[in-house]
Write a structure and sequence with these properties.
Order of helices and strands: HHHHHHHHHHHHHEEH
Strand content: 5-15%
Largest sheet: 2 strands, antiparallel
């Protein structure tokens, strides 16, 4: 018997995860997040779904985790902070099960409540502090996380500008595009505008947002970032 089942109608951990995945597969992110009204464990289940083999499910789990954390945080902010600490730990090899979507999930959760703003510099500085061999895998996700934090970055953006500038010249189009996008959302679009080569860069970029992927280009994202600087 599942020890989490404590009463009539209560879902077991396995049932809860299956129900959440059904919602994510159908694009019902709010429905998935609303399950957090029954308990904070839903946030943990959504984090586990970021390991899903289907990228769209994993990304939707990231977004839904932020929505669910907002509900949990209204009544139990300490529970949310425990999940943030766990996600940070899951970035390390010592965890035994690296969560490649951990930076994105941390950003989605941290941006839901000002009580978690102390995690903002921790998330952003991953791009400076991570070992190069790990950063190769995590860099796109960290850039997306920085972009999602947007205005919350505040003065913390100064600490990562050198890394963002370097990412604008990265050999991978996905990295260049996400760096340009993050520059735009954090108020640094002028740094993109002075690089005309980015405005002509047709390298393909896949950007997640609002439950779906958008296929775009470095030039399109750079143009949007540059426009924000005006």
């Amino acid at each position: 018997m599942d020890r989490e089942r404590s009463g009539p109608g209560r879902l077991s951990a396995r049932e809860r995860k299956a129900r959440l995945r059904e919602h994510l597969a159908a694009g019902r992110l709010e429905a998935a997040a609303s399950m957090a009204e029954e308990g904070h464990q839903v946030v943990g289940s959504l984090i586990s779904l970021t390991y899903d083999a289907e990228p769209l499910i994993a990304w939707r789990a990231v977004e839904a985790a932020g929505l669910a954390a907002a509900r949990v945080g209204a009544r139990d902010p300490r529970a949310v902070r425990r999940y943030l600490r766990r996600l940070f730990w899951l970035i390390t090899e010592e965890s035994g099960g690296i969560c490649w979507y951990a930076p994105q999930a941390m950003a989605e959760i941290a941006r839901t409540d000002p009580h978690h703003e102390d995690f903002v510099p921790i998330i952003m500085n991953l791009i400076n502090e991570m070992a190069d061999e790990d950063l190769d895998h995590f860099r796109p996700g960290i850039l997306w996380a920085i972009g999602r934090l947007g205005p919350l970055a505040g003065e913390n953006i100064d600490d990562v500008l050198a890394s963002l500038d370097a990412a604008l010249s990265h050999p991978e189009a996905q990295v260049r595009g996400l760096a340009a996008w993050a520059m735009g959302t954090t108020g640094q679009g002028a740094r993109v505008a002075i690089r005309p080569q980015l405005l002509d860069d047709e390298g393909p970029v896949r950007l997640y947002g609002g439950g779906t992927f958008t296929e775009t280009t470095v030039s399109a994202l750079a143009g949007e970032a540059a426009a924000r600087s005006g």
